[in-house]
Give the backbone structure.
Amino acid sequence: MILPAVAGLAIVLIVLWDAFETIVLPRRVTHPFRLTRLFYRTTWRPWRAVARQIRSGRNRETFLSFYGPLSLLVLFVVWAIALIFGFGLLNFSAANRDLSPLPLWTGVYLSGTTFFTLGLGDVTPHSSVERLLAVAESGLGFGFLALVLSYLPVIYQAFSRREVSIVLLDARAGSPPTATELLRRHPGADGLAELQSLLREWERWSAEILESHVSYPVVSYFRSQHNNESWVAALGAILDASALLIASVENACSRQARLTFAMCRHTVVDLAQVFDATPRSASPDRLPPSELHRLRTVLSAAGFQLRDTPVANEKLAEMRRMYEPYLEALSYHLFMQLPPWILAKEITDNWRTSAWGRITGFSSPGQQQASPDDHTE
């Protein structure tokens, strides 16, 4: 029977190639059809839709945090089921109809016991082709298990490296991190030196994010430990601070700010393309003129003299247009809230809280910070 054999072989090859691209191939895959991409598109959207219905921010984040790890396990199960069914079709096609008539589901059962190397022996292959398929599938089962076990540590190592830098940002830029707090907490010559070093570290951090999240996009769905933190928010705060330094300040940090801005902008643009996230305009504006004026007043009191000229304002607006639409797209797709440029009021940093304390939320003054709840499809 040719048709079941062709279908089974196609299923096996598609799954193996998809697993190779997902786990082994260290670069972005650009062709339109992928089993993994289809899986994440069909599971993330309803998961996100359910999360929108949860009113409590803490419960919503807890629910969203399950998706990343759970999706990995379900993806492995989908791959395994597809391989078993594909080999089941091959067994059904290869069976000798005169000596050993084999129903389709018996072929699938034989495939399952072979894939997991159960060795039950109640159904045995008879023809040479069936025996060859049994040997090939049992070896593939071992290889599949080894591939899965090697993939999980890579994912969690990438997640851990990402989160270390985000946690370190707590005392340096607040919780959540904002551009205003980042600059305000680094006054004077010593502060500028520390700020320059921090921007250099985040230039490298964004490059690592680009490499790891393009190679393993599933890491993007893993949430941070605290509800008011995320890698998207941290990246946005660093981009905001870099844009502000480039447009309004001329000091020792300006050159490093340009390098960091370039790398961070590269990261958000490429990751938006990975998720097919269409650039979106911010609504409402994250930095209206009144907030920009208040930001300048706060930073001026901290020792930062920001240029307040039409040229500087236009330069800042131009730089914001370079990254904010892509940042908004990532925020919407991943359901991660962006931080304001300046907080409405001083809040307690995460490192100052305890298990009995409550981490406060945040919004920008004069407006309610747009949360993912406000987005509509």
